[in-house]
Amino acid sequence: MHSLVFVFFLVFFGASVFATLALYTRQAIVVAYIVLGVVVGPYCLGLISDITIVHEISDIGIMFLLFLLGLNLEIESMIKMLGRALFVCIISSLVFVIATVAICYLFGIGAQGFIIGAALIFSSTIICLKLLPTTALHHKRIGELVIAILLIQDLLAILMLTFMSLWSSQTDSFHLFSLIKLLLALPVLGGVGYLAQKYFLFRLFRKFSRFQEYIFLLSIGWCIGMAQLAVVFGLSNEIGAFIAGVTVASSPIAKYIYENLKPLRDFFLILFFFSVGAGFQISLLPSVWGVVLVLTVLVLVLKPILHFVTLWFVRETPKESLEIGVRLGQGSEFSLMLIALASTAGIASADAQIIVEAVAILSFIVSSYLVVLTYPSPIAVSDRLRRD
């Protein structure tokens, strides 16, 4: 068993080296963290033989990711884009799942194709937002549509994570009692969060707003406190963190909290993506490499086409529709979370898990290159395309 200091040394010193190489090659930095995990993990060099601790710590990063996503949920803006984004997400997801199931049946995978397709319908919130210039993110229609589509996808992913966590691996069935409990727990947790924010939390924010350290501490406490309350209600930590963010989103201090917690989120997300790479059993890849390559092409080609067609159908311009489609043409961190949870619950096979992980990682790499070579981004190859 390695000491925690040694593990952190490998993760963060190694990440700094790999991230430097990634920036020189115009690659998304998250890919560097995954590749580092593959290289030093137990299935390659074996410098870290047990990633359990890293994985458990990295889960905090997912909590903060969803907390900040909830903080950034602008209800009024979302309502304006909701109809179009919802149509795009539903149609593109259904067609993509059908195509994935068909391909999986051709490769003899069978019913696992539905699980693989369901996991891969999502696009990466982190990569899309990292490669989207700030000006486009806040002031242009492309940014608004990308965020609206990603938010709907993220909400769907959160619901899928919640439902999957209630699936019994012993009986392979979904308990009606668990479903009723879920339906009651979500509004109750949301109500508790809203009341606590309105009559307690916001007053503290307003009274002690000049103490930055206290605001930072209170924000973390609120996020983790709601996450633990969600567990008491039978939900996941991630659901609680997301609701914690949503309940504070309307507060004037939400943007301040968002900006100040981003470094903390990034710290834990480095561990998350490292653990993804370290848990990737590369030795299993040869047995499924054919379907992995075909599905990777499907993600990189069909996803942009589906988004282009559906956005054009709702009267978006062809140029903007194509750019949005290309930016959304990859797997997601939620793909990795969903397939891992499905595997733990006994729903997904080991082959299905390795397929989703491999497709997500490959699509991260190729999609990042396509975006930085073609569209404005903070790490674009061309000076003409580089936008901060």
3D structure, described in words:
Helix content is 76%, strand content 1%. The relative contact order is 0.16. It has helices at 4-24, 29-40, 52-71, 75-106, 112-120, 125-130, 134-139, 141-165, 176-207, 212-232, 237-248, 254-278, 289-313, 318-327, 333-344, 350-374; strands spanning 167-168, 173-174. The chain is globular and about 60 Å long. The model is unreliable at 168-173 (pLDDT under 50). α13 packs across α16 (350-374). It has 16 helices and two strands. It has 388 residues and is mainly alpha-helical. Strands 1-2 form a two-stranded antiparallel sheet.
Detail the topology: elements first, then pairings.
Layout: H1 4-24, H2 29-40, H3 52-71, H4 75-106, H5 112-120, H6 125-130, H7 134-139, H8 141-165, E1 167-168, E2 173-174, H9 176-207, H10 212-232, H11 237-248, H12 254-278, H13 289-313, H14 318-327, H15 333-344, H16 350-374
Antiparallel strand pairs: 1-2
Helix % is: over 70%
Beta strand count = 2
End-to-end distance:
43 Å
Mass-distribution shape: globular
N-to-C order of helices and strands: HHHHHHHHEEHHHHHHHH
Mean pLDDT over the residues: 81
Strand content: under 5%
Concise account of the structure shown:
By secondary structure, this protein is an all-alpha fold.
Short descriptors:
388 residues, mainly alpha, two-stranded antiparallel ribbon, 1% strand
